[in-house]
Design goal:
Largest sheet: 7 strands, mixed
Strand content: 15-25%
Helix content: 25-40%
Radius of gyration: 23 Å
Oligomer: single chain
């Protein structure tokens, strides 16, 4: 996933040898980079904490009244509780409910509505999860020095405090982006639903998960459950997909074998966008999609779970801590909050079975704190380790004679590159280069933005800080070096066939990582099916269980497929 527009730094120095020539197309690029560096140098982190806007009470009630409706209280005791409603949580809720187990789903975020024309999201509090809190919590511990972060921090400082759909959290040498909504990450991603190939999958999982079984059973089951399909021919012919077609053409010329990728989109709504019957979102690379064209979990697993009558979903319920009674029941300290973050009620809930699916960040926060504060003391030393960012990076490649209008973000085409660290590349964002757009258009030039996911073995560790009572990721300073080099290598191979006399490539490091994996991995912190070692009836079933990488692919499908595999085993075995 590409988290907004980023201004690139000289991370690789002379390796990006044509970057300066590319930037000369617009003086605006240099101006923007200079402003970003100046903001960083002026101590924006400290200023941002003091300048963050107060919540605009009353405004959001008019914009999205649905999320302010009272939420029914969850049962004080449940047979099963699932923390989180993203890919792993939704699978867990459905399969437990189908097995006749009364299941409570706790989600910290809101249940957002859909509308073909209404502006549900804007770049205000609806976009960011409590920006003030994020700035205040992250700044003292951050060791980030890349000037491009100043742009993100500056934008956050101007956003009023509210429970929006993206949380940005600050860590040592990294920042993490995660969803906060019913549907979790499925509400905020761009629908890429790609399967890994055998070689990178086996390299990452090391035999803990059998690829043949995944390919035969669980990947197909997950694709069907999500409803993911490739782009229909009539949609692919639309002018908003011309970048995808150019990408496939250039990739073939470079000797790759591009192929259609499944996408998690509701194509009839995408057709409505093309025909002018719905607000353009899938076809305009909207940062947040609210017209229903994105086929999020709110259209698939979650309503099916609720329809069983055995699963209930409770938005705006933030789980703060977990401990265990002598009886073996798990006890959760939970705050029921308003969209503004006000605590409306404090609840203590118990359950016989507990599934952690709060996203890689949320699950690690809960487990690492529980181990190190002694509320779950039997958790082993592997909890919090083996975290990776899925090897994500992006490149922009200039194309000659291809002046374009707005482009879709749908990742329609992809290929595997096997010459370096195994990688899959897809078109996953838009034509937009920010200040370079007008200059590029004047030169009859456009750009394709290519997302690249490499098999990378850099790993970080979550650590509990007793002084701040925060769980912070410790990520190596040079952890993404191989990813950057691999992205640039693939970018230059593609750019050689771009139709331009210069090899125009800009590397965009993923400064805000959204594909977070690991920390409670299969075979170390958990057994091979997500049962947490040291406890009975405690499970991890989200991105935290994958070993830092999804095998050179976007992780959503692999998380869903492994979650299906895990729940089938757990329910069959009864534990």
């Amino acid at each position: 996933m590409t988290a907004g527009r980023r201004i690139c730094g000289d991370e690789l120095g002379g390796v990006i040898m044509d970057r300066r020539s590319f930037l000369r197309m617009s003086a605006g690029g240099a101006v923007a980079a200079g402003m970003s560096g100046a903001l960083w140098g002026s101590g924006l982190l400290a200023a941002g904490r003091g300048a963050a806007a107060p919540p605009r009470r009353g405004v959001y009630e008019r914009l999205v009244p649905e999320i302010f409706r009272p939420v029914p209280a969850p049962p004080q005791h449940s047979e099963a509780i699932v923390i989180g409603s993203g890919f792993g949580g939704a699978v867990s809720a459905l399969r437990l409910a189908e097995a006749g187990i009364a299941t409570t789903v706790l989600e910290r975020g809101s249940r957002w509505p859909h509308d073909p024309w209404r502006e549900i999201f804007g770049f205000d509090g609806r976009m960011l999860w409590h920006a003030q809190q994020s700035l205040a919590d992250g700044a003292p511990d951050s060791t980030l020095t890349v000037p491009a972060y100043a742009e993100t921090l500056g934008a956050m400082a101007a956003v009023d405090d509210f429970g929006g759909i993206f949380e940005i959290s600050w860590h040592h040498n990294s920042a993490i982006l995660c969803g906060a909504a019913v549907g979790g990450g499925s509400v905020v991603y761009i629908g890429i639903t790609a399967q890994s190939e055998r070689t990178p999958f086996d390299e990452v999982f090391g035999g803990t998960v059998d690829y043949d079984e995944m390919a035969r059973v669980w990947y197909p089951k997950a694709l069907a459950g999500l409803g993911a399909t490739t782009v229909p021919a009539d949609v692919y012919r639309d002018h908003t997909f011309s970048n995808a077609r150019d990408f496939a053409r250039v990739a073939r010329s470079a000797g790759y074998q591009p192929h259609a990728l499944p996408g998690n989109w509701r194509w009839n709504v995408v057709r409505d966008e093309i025909a002018g019957r719905a607000k353009p979102m899938a076809t305009s690379s909207a940062l947040a999609n609210s017209n229903g064209s994105l086929n999020s979990l709110t259209f698939s697993y979650l309503p099916r779970a609720e329809s069983t009558g055995k699963a209930t979903i409770h938005p705006r319920h933030q789980v703060n801590a977990i401990h265990i009674e002598r009886s073996g029941r798990y006890v959760l300290d939970v705050d029921y909050v308003s969209p503004y973050g006000d605590i409306l009620a404090r609840r203590v809930l118990t359950t016989d079975r507990l599934v952690l699916a709060a996203g890689c960040l949320g699950t690690n926060r809960l487990l690492v704190a529980a181990r190190d504060t002694g509320t779950l003391p039997n958790l082993n030393e592997h909890i919090g380790t083996g975290w990776g960012n899925n090897g994500n990076g992006n490149i922009d490649i200039a194309l000659g004679g291809t002046r374009k209008d707005t482009q879709s973000a749908v990742g329609a085409q992809g290929f595997f590159d096997t010459d370096g660290p195994f990688a899959r590349a897809v078109v996953n964002s838009t034509f937009s280069l920010g200040p370079l757009d007008s200059a590029a258009a004047a030169l009859d030039t456009s750009a394709i933005k290519v997302g690249i996911t490499s098999v990378d073995h850099s790993r970080g560790t979550f650590r509990y800080h007793r002084d701040t009572r925060r769980v912070v990721l410790d990520w190596p300073a040079a952890g993404n070096g191989d990813v950057a080099a691999n992205c640039v290598r693939i970018g230059h191979r593609l750019a050689d066939h771009s139709g331009l006399p210069v090899n125009g490539v800009v590397y965009e490091p993923d400064l805000t990582w959204a594909h977070c994996l690991g920390g409670a991995t299969l075979g170390t912190a958990c057994d091979e099916y997500g049962r947490v070692k040291g406890y009975q009836n405690l499970y991890v079933n989200d991105g935290a269980m994958l070993p830092g990488s999804a095998g050179a692919s976007n992780p959503s499908l692999t998380i869903t497929a492994v979650a299906e595999r895990n729940m089938a085993e757990i329910i069959t075995r009864g534990a």
